[in-house]
Structures are given as C-alpha cells and as structure tokens.
Design brief:
The chain has about 260 residues and is α/β, with parallel strands linked by helices. The chain is built from 10 helices and 9 strands. It has a single domain, classed as Rossmann fold.
Length: about 260
C-alpha cells in the first residue's frame, strides 16, 4: 500500500490525524500509540538494533555530542523510553548535573527507569510526562533531546512549542528522527528493507501490527525541510539539520531565541 502524502501539521479540518497510513480522531491517537509501545517495550531495544543494523546507537551518540551539554547542566530527554540517550547525557552532565528521562508511556518509562538504576545512573530522574503539556517551568533546562519520538506525538507543533518554553534562552534542542532518504535508489532499498520489519516484529516481539504502525509512521513524518520549518515556527533559531545514512535519519538542531 502506498503511503498518503504526509502533512507538515497533522491536523486537518475534519479533526483527524495520521496513525500510520490510517486517519483517526486526534483524541484516539495517543491511546493507540500508547498501546503500541506497551506491546513492544520488552523487546524495544533488540528490535531497534535489528531495524537499524545497530546504527541507532551511533546516531544517539552523535546527537548527544551535538547537544554540547556540560557538567552541572540540567537536560530534558523527551520520549526517552528505555534510556539510551539519557544514559549518554548523564555521563556528560556528571554528578552535579541532572537528566530528566520523560516519556508519556508508563511501560517504556519503567523499562528505562529500571535500566538506569541497574547501571547506577543516580543523576537520571524519570518523569511520566505528555510532550504536548510538559510539567516543567519556563526556562528550566540547559538542553533538550528527543530521539525517534517526535513522529509519535499527536500534535508535533505543540510539542515543539512546549520544548521551546521549557528551555533556557540560547539552549539547544536536538531532534533525532527517521527522515526522507536522498536519492531514488536509496529510498527503494530502504523501503524494501523496512518492509520486513512487521514480519520480524511479529516473530521476535509477538506484535506484527505494532511494527507495521512504526514503519508507516516513519513514512508519514515530515521530511527534513518541513520539520526545520516547524521548529522555526515554534520559535527556534539557528535551525539546521544533518542527514545520516543518506537521509534515512536526520538530526535537527535549533536554539531557543
């Protein structure tokens, strides 16, 4: 099935948003996404390794490097899930700093919390939080990251505005997300490879439909230039992006003005 054309702002006049290739009522998407991540949480990292051939770990390290956080910083990792990025940030901010590992999905957050405790990361604090209504004060963070999570948010534009609100003036936002491959041959090869994800997800994680959604959600995510413009509209300046693996993924960065 060919994907419909993605929209930069998910909302349309009939009040529906995309859930993969489906259109659903805006209020339904959060619940359906939550169910997807409750299902995949136990095998989430294994599937990430398989789907990205391990490259997601390198992408996350590069994202943290670009964030430029320093000892003593307070950093927000939104949609932090199982804690991969939070752990890297925690090493950078040190014992005098703090990383807030925030996620709207309790199952994912529990996995991340337990993992961080097991690894001895005492400067990581989990927070059950909705990215569209963050429970933090204005100008609270020295940096913020969101890795492979923005495409699952119902109102991406609202989440970007909230991230802008809670950052200190001049603080950076780093968005790591799947994006649009550059070049027809790479796009076809990637489509063929990613079409296998639901089958593998069904075999290893026991939920083919969850990985069908995750695959489709990538296709519906705004391409590089559109996401950069959304960040500017949310108030970020110095916005730019770095294509990874020929645009299969991209890191967007901007600063609160």
């Amino acid at each position: 099935m060919a994907p419909p054309s993605p929209t930069d702002d998910q909302h349309v006049s009939d009040g529906t948003v995309d859930f993969g290739y489906e259109r659903v009522k805006a209020e339904e998407k959060a619940a359906r996404v939550a169910e997807v991540f409750r299902s995949v949480a136990p095998r989430y990292d294994l599937m990430n390794d398989l789907m990205s051939l391990g490259t997601h770990r390198l992408m996350k390290r590069l994202t943290v490097t670009l964030a430029g956080v320093r000892p003593g910083h307070r950093v927000l990792d939104l949609a932090g899930g199982t804690g991969d990025v939070a752990a890297l940030l925690a090493e950078r901010v040190g014992p005098t700093g703090q990383v807030i590992l925030a996620d709207i999905n309790e199952a994912m957050l529990i996995v991340g919390r337990d993992r961080m405790i097991d690894r001895g990361h005492l400067n990581i604090h989990p927070a059950l939080a909705d990215g569209e209504a963050l429970p933090f004060g204005d100008d609270s963070f020295d940096a913020a990251t969101i890795a492979f999570g923005l495409r699952n948010v119902t109102r991406k534009d609202q989440a970007l505005r909230e991230l802008h609100r809670v950052l200190k003036p001049g603080a950076p936002l780093l968005v790591l997300e799947f994006s649009k491959p550059r070049g027809a041959l790479l796009e076809k090869a990637y489509d063929a490879f990613s079409s296998l994800w639901p089958t593998v997800g069904g075999a290893l994680a026991g939920d083919r439909e969850a990985y069908r959604y995750l695959n489709e959600s990538i296709r519906m995510h705004p391409p590089q230039e559109a996401l950069a413009e959304m960040m500017r509209e949310a108030g970020f300046g110095a916005v730019r992006f770095h294509n990874l693996i020929g645009g299969i993924a991209a890191i967007h960065q901007g600063r609160k003005q």
